[in-house]
Structure formats: structure tokens, C-alpha cells
Design brief:
Layout lengths: L1 E4 L3 E8 L4 E8 L5 E4 L4 E7 L1 E6 L2 E6 L2 E5 L5 E5 L3 E8 L10 E6 L1
Antiparallel strand pairs: 1-2, 2-3, 3-10, 4-11, 5-8, 5-10, 6-7, 6-9
Length: 108
Amino acid sequence: MLYYEDEYISYVIYINNEKLVKGLAIIKKNYKPYLHFHKEEEYYNLLSGKAKLYINGNITIIEAPYEIKIKSNNVHALQPISNNIVLEFIFEKGPFENIKYTYLKSRL
């Protein structure tokens, strides 16, 4: 199991193999995410809270429960509007260590 934590975000990856990656993140309101992309499709399941979702130049305000599939190489980021959000993220290919994130200089 992989775990990460800083002052704005914590996440645990609870399934991590060649066929599936599933993680759960808790993200605090003042988090300023970098726009990023990767070749693997990703699924976001917003389980709690309200957030600003950026995909390829479009911003949408979303509120839990909310599910979306983010296509391969789409530039995206998610920023909390509520005090915190709970997000499940899923990749249908792994393991997580092999997913190459490309970060842009811009933040949401």
C-alpha cells in the first residue's frame, strides 16, 4: 500500500497492480494543484465535498456524488471549494509507479 501526505493532501493507494490502481485522497481547500496529464485514462469519483474541475481549458463546478472519466492525455486538475474533498481515483492500468505524470507550470 502506498501512502503520501503533506499539509494540503493525503492519499492512500489501496489497490496497486498491473490491471488496476485505486486510491483515496483527502484534499484541503487551499490546495493549488498543477495542471497535469498522463497517457492512462483516469476515473474520478468525488465522494464528498464541492470542487472545481479543470479539463482541457474547461472549468466545471462539481459536487459529490460525481463521477467522470478523464481521457488519455487530457490536461486536468481538481481543486476543492469546500473545506475538504474526498476523492477516489482509478486507473485501469498500473502499477501506480509506472504512470508517468507530466506537470505543466500552471496551477488551477
